[in-house]
Automatic annotation (TrEMBL):
Annotated coiled-coil segments of the chain: none
Keyword Cell membrane: no
Organism: Flavobacterium pokkalii
Highest rank taxon of the organism: Bacteria
Keyword list, A-Z: Hydrolase
Molecular-function annotations in GO: hydrolase activity
UniProt cross-references to InterPro entries, sorted A to Z: AB_hydrolase_fold, RBBP9/YdeN
Signal peptide boundaries: none
Name listed for the protein in its UniProt record: Alpha/beta hydrolase
Amino acid sequence: MKHTLLIVPGLGDSTTGHWQDNWLQHFPNTKKVVQNNWNQPQLQDWLKNLDATINSIETPVVIVAHSLAVSLVTHWSQQNDTSKIAGALLVAPADVESSKHTPEETWNFAPIPLNKLNYPSIVISSSNDPYISVERAEFLANKWESLFYNVGPKGHLNFESQLGLWEEGQQILESLLQSITK
């Protein structure tokens, strides 16, 4: 069964040099959610764009979300039919409930839904992510009934982390894809 990888960037977009942008260029059958305002995100606007993008895809969808987009995806999953979602890779969730960890423009994405996700998922976090503690990321993964990977001290797993094509992330994605096709 053919899947579409859906790249869902967070605050500020995942532009040139970010592993999400590299994956968009590297993998066939990949699409990206485009938001109208990357720097002043509004949950309802972002939800509409995510929903419209998912509805435009005819194959099963594997979500690849980063940072603020992880909260976006969990909100969307609570409000919509998720039968088209084959799985999700949820990378470096941002703790939008914590003023210590996230900027004010992201707080309208709180509270983070804690319901079990209705599809296989993996949460990946770094042990020194400035936008969430590794304990909080693991707590969220447990609530969502997601597998959890701590990839060590690699920051926010964003442009500054200089991950290139992020081979480690690709291996984790491959494990998710294998679990979906079994």
